[in-house]
Model the fold of this input.
Amino acid sequence: MARLDFPKDFVWGTATASYQIEGAAKEGGRGPSIWDTFSHTPGKVVGGDTGDVACDSYHRYEEDIALLKKLGVKAYRFSIAWPRIYPQGTGELNQEGLDYYSRVVDALIAAGIEPCATLYHWDLPQALQDQGGWANRSTIDAFVRYAETVFQAFDGKIKQWITFNETWCVSFLSNTLGIHAPGLKDLQLGVTVAHHCLVAHGLTVQKFRALGIKGEIGTTHNLGWCEPYTNSPEDVEAARRSRAWGNEWFMDPTFKGTYPQFLVEWFKTKGAEVPIQPGDMETIAQKIDFIGINFYTGNYGRYKKNEGLFDCEDVQVGFDRTFMDWNVYPEALYKTLKWVHEEYGDTPIYITENGACYDDTLTEDNRIHDELRTAYFRKHFIQCHRLIESGVPLKGYFAWSLLDNFEWAEGYRKRFGIVYTDYETLARHPKDSYYFIQKVIAESGLDA
Ligand code: FCB
Done:
């Protein structure tokens, strides 16, 4: 059995997001977000579930932090809900919102855990959506103002900042595919929203530097891997388009200040164009201190005329699949991060999310024997180790998620936690995967 040791300074952590765990949707002066509107719209979320209560972490954060401490993590990634800080998106500041996150941050620091904050994990104030949301350029200014407020409030306490979580989801999944809030279906809208979020990211990094905030700032893109099914030029091109939609479309502007031209042309044939204003691309490509990557899955793609946006169909080749129907393809994590390093250079990389959904059962003594999730983590840790060995600057790993939570359009049925949430009592029960990760952290490695 080979022993895989991780560097002593490797950052182990777990991740969550405000709307998925906090609940208390109407407390503490919080304004409504697009996810309140969306989840309360019949037919949008499985089972009609909403984040009104979620895991009630707004009230139970101390319990959550105790779980983190026992787990032994060095860092905790959470998100700040913009509508708790500016209930209307702009205008009046809600001090109670800042106070809530101060309590969380202070409790994390007291527990010896580094807070890592995401500024935008999808809960856009509804008041801004009413004016066009991210398709309206003035949302960018509102975002930078909000970012400035939290930077100043937590300067010196939060030392790792992520501007956006998964700009692909914010833009295309939400505004082109209509699956996430605000649930719109328009290619041009997706392209525009993506661009505005990228500009907002760049301006926020500039603001961070101008204010002299201590710590590091980066962004998180959700990358995947689409392998061509055969070597035929049609398959290769189809898989390339499909992959570039999630990868290069976001990574190229972030690092190179350009969009992948072949996809720009492809979108043009579908009537969509990027609304670039002078200076935008330079703004986007601010130097960042790290890149966050959320990785879950990969697939094989084959050319098929009129299949999806890219004439590319997903081919099943026999991977095990999770309860989300996502392929378990750990090698794709290796391929993706290798590619990131080769294509975009030596910027430190953090896996800001990785994990798996399975249909857990609670035993009578409140245990969850989640062998499949544990195996998923193990396989991906092995790939992380391989990446580090091969010289990829992978600095940390945040498991998604600390606890089962509101899985967006899938509601509560889809569990990703390493801690089980009993939605009747809101009790938390660590799963076997939690104890597995606890051991890996304690030993700074694992037997492969
Ligand atoms: C990612 C999201 C995260 C969670 C996982 C399963 O796309 O960032 O909030 O829902 O998927």
Q: What stands out?
A: DSSP finds 16 helices and 13 strands in the chain. The mean pLDDT is 98. The chain has one domain: 3-447. The CA atoms of residues 95 and 414 lie 34 Å apart.
